[in-house]
Amino acid sequence: MRLMIPALILCSTAAHADVTVAFVEGAPKDRFVIENAGQCATAPSIFEIDLTASTAGLIFDTTEAGAGVEVFQPVEVVAGADMVIDLAQPGDGDQTLSVSLKSLPPGGEIIITLDLDDMIASGTSRPTMVTGSEIKGIAVRLTQQTDATAMANFTDSVQVSIPVAGCMS
Predict the structure, then answer these.
(1) Element (H or E) spanning 50, and its range?
(2) For residues 59 and 36, what is the distance between their CA atoms, to the nearest angstrom?
(3) Could you tell me which of 112, 106, 104, 134 has the C-alpha nearest to residue 49?
(4) Lowest mean pLDDT among 2-16, 50-64, 110-124, 131-145
(5) Fewer Cβ neighbours under 10 Å: the N or C end of the chain?
(6) Which one, of 140, 126, 138, lies nearest residue 27 by Cα?
(7) Do the Cβ atoms of 94 and 87 come closer than 8 Å?
(8) Pairing of the two strands 84-88 and 45-50
(9) Which of 16, 13, 36, 14 is nearest to 165 (CA)?
(10) pLDDT in tens, 132-143
């Protein structure tokens, strides 16, 4: 029995704060859902969405007179605002979004609504509808106050996981 206790200690894993990011196509608003799927809180962080490498040339469509097509929407935090310090509003046609976070507790969820439009015509695609293949290449990054940066890129899947090292103490 004495040998089992050290073996159990060696088999235990460190707590982590993996963050999942899901893209949900919607009308009139699309949304990104950011959730801490890990076991502990993240440190204060900067969360970024970078559309520049998306296969469809995605942009934020925030104004009627800008680069987007038809419907436009402002970028808004609609859930989890208490975990957000600041949201840097992207301009119409921009491809990056930055959100300063206090901390994201286990199970904590932030929902950001917006309108993404694609700028590269591809067969039957509609610029106002963003499908799985069009989000391929979107990068999401989480930079903690320790300057540790973790990132993930969307594939054809509408959800990615950012492996976050360590926990907020």
Answers:
(1) strand 45-50
(2) 26
(3) 112
(4) 2-16
(5) N
(6) 126
(7) no
(8) unpaired
(9) 16
(10) 688 899 999 999
Tokens linked to 43: 């440190």
pLDDT digits (tens, 9 = 90+) for 64-105: 887 766 788 999 999 999 999 999 999 999 999 999 999 999
DSSP string, 74-86: --EEEE-GGGEEE
| Entry pTM | 0.85
Radius of gyration of the chain (CA): 18
Q: How many residues does the chain have?
A: 169
CATH of domain 15-162: 2.60.40
Domain residue ranges of the chain, discontinuous segments joined by +: 15-162
pLDDT of residue 12: 42
Alpha-carbon 7 to chain mean position: 38
Residue 165 has pLDDT above 70, yes or no: yes
Residues 6+ apart with CB under 8 A from 95: 50, 51, 52, 54, 58, 59, 60
- Prior bond to 106 cis, omega within 30? no
